[in-house]
């Protein structure tokens, strides 16, 4: 991928861009092997490569400049504001949307926030596109409600200018700190959810929902987990009860579930649980129980294990409390998806009553050191 900003030294966010992509992938695989080799995995599969550009369907842009000439991008290590509206990581449609957003900033007089002076209103522009439909969700992170009336006044113009824009919201982040968003979200459109669809599974994204940045690779990640599950059932493994912890909007659970099993999905965010329930109903699943709870607290209080446990924790990993609960419950099989191979390896080391059957790398974050890992574990036979 060629990037003029990287070549000029303005943006080094893709820290591995100077390395040929095949070498990037090989280096990630080598790093993963070093972490999991002490765990004696039975099968290490080939890594799944990403598209090298136009692969990120979610943008988080710092707003700088002025109302008349806004910049959407980053503040680099030199303290310079760099406009990345033409970043090649985003699909081509993003550039046109960014151009209209800049017009909105000028029309509504949304003064970019000045970090040093602690004044101004507009801090970030968060833009997400549905891989399936091409529709967009736009979130504007503001310091206060001072510009809400101006935004509502210009909303009809914005929606007319961008017919693919489905959801628009304002997030309030009043603190003078490096926080991307605050807890309060104000919807400006009647439509509150962006509909995604991967592998024929609908997924509904609310403004504050977590979702993978690379939906093409996310689809392959979910499909692989579904294939591994199907192979277990073909081998005669009874999977009657499935748990999906840290389930988000239901991506893993809804890909793996069927009406021949019960699915319990646990996620701390109520909005994500509401989205998962909506998708499950659309799929016609009848034995589904999605709950807004802490995953560790749920597992600790449980009295019987699932046949298959799926976990997709944040970067910090499962944590000692949840690992302890999993070891006590002792589900027969675990599918563990991780965005941090170091915390994954630490958790798997603690889960010493499990055999690591399969490991596969999914390169959701091309040109960076990050990647996703999918693993399959089986409970070891108990010794007398």
From TrEMBL:
Query: Which CDD domains does this one have?
Result: AdoMet_MTases
PANTHER family from the UniProt entry: RNA M5U METHYLTRANSFERASE (PTHR11061), TRNA (URACIL(54)-C(5))-METHYLTRANSFERASE (PTHR11061:SF30)
This entry's Gene Ontology molecular function terms read: 4 iron, 4 sulfur cluster binding; metal ion binding; rRNA (uridine-C5-)-methyltransferase activity
Q: Give the source lineage, highest ranks first.
A: Bacteria, Pseudomonadati, Pseudomonadota, Gammaproteobacteria, Alteromonadales
Query: Active site: which residues?
Result: 339 (nucleophile), 339
EC number(s) per UniProt?
Answer: 2.1.1.189
Give the species this sequence originates from: Alishewanella agri BL06
Q: What is this protein called?
A: 23S rRNA (uracil(747)-C(5))-methyltransferase RlmC
Q: Which gene encodes it?
A: rumB
Q: Name one GO biological process term.
A: rRNA base methylation
UniProt keyword list? 4Fe-4S, Iron, Iron-sulfur, Metal-binding, Methyltransferase, rRNA processing, S-adenosyl-L-methionine, Transferase
Q: Which residues bind S-adenosyl-L-methionine?
A: 212, 246, 267, 312
Q: Which family does it belong to?
A: Belongs to the class I-like SAM-binding methyltransferase superfamily. RNA M5U methyltransferase family.
What is any Pfam family matched here?
tRNA_U5-meth_tr
How would you classify this enzyme at the top EC level? transferase
